[in-house]
Amino acid sequence: MKITNEILIIDLEATCWENDRPPAGQKVDIIEIGICKLNVTSKAISQKQSIYVIPERSEVNRFCTKLTGITPQLIEEKGIYFEEACEKIKDEYHSEPLTWAGYGNFDGEQIIEQCDWLGIKNPFSEHYLNVMYEFKRHFRLYKSVGLKRALDHLNMDFEGNHHNGADDAYNTARILSHILGK
């Protein structure tokens, strides 16, 4: 795995349903890309933001809003199409040569799936780092732990709101910075 000096950390929020099953005719859609940049040498975390994405294959329902805080109105006011979000990431983060990371495999797999569905190029490199796996490996844990439990393990408080993409990405960057620094 190639690890660049700057790593982009992402956390996605996506359309979701109480029973984890999309209604007929709907598919999981990214509705927020939380992103920030970690400088491996300096440990600085920068460029934290939320990019809200208009769902094209499903709708934001009450359950999803309750979990993420993302409302249909927020998407209507601040959302852009996924393809535009990918262009924004390429332009603002110069993402293509950089290692990118997320807490678990969902984020990486969902970006790839949505790019494939739209027939567009992934804005990220082929070098994806699963921070959940790296945390488990680093501490020689028997099984993986969630984001909040990983922070607890490091005696760190969660900063921000859980299930906010930008805040989850930022906290993931804090964990990654810690395990890369040892």
What does the model show?
The protein has 182 residues and is α/β, with parallel strands linked by helices. The model has no long low-confidence stretch (mean pLDDT 95). A hairpin with a 5-residue loop joins strand 2 (30-39) and strand 3 (45-52). The chain contains 7 helices and 5 strands. The protein has a single domain, classed as Nucleotidyltransferase, domain 5, CATH 3.30.420.
Quick take:
With 182 residues, this protein is α/β, with parallel strands linked by helices. The protein contains 7 helices and 5 strands; from the N terminus they run βββαααβαβααα. It has a single domain (6-180), classed as Ribonuclease H-like superfamily/Ribonuclease H (Nucleotidyltransferase, domain 5, 2-Layer Sandwich), CATH 3.30.420.
Question: Could you list some keywords that capture this structure?
Answer:
about 180 residues; alpha/beta; Nucleotidyltransferase, domain 5; five-stranded mixed sheet; 7 helices; 5 strands; globular
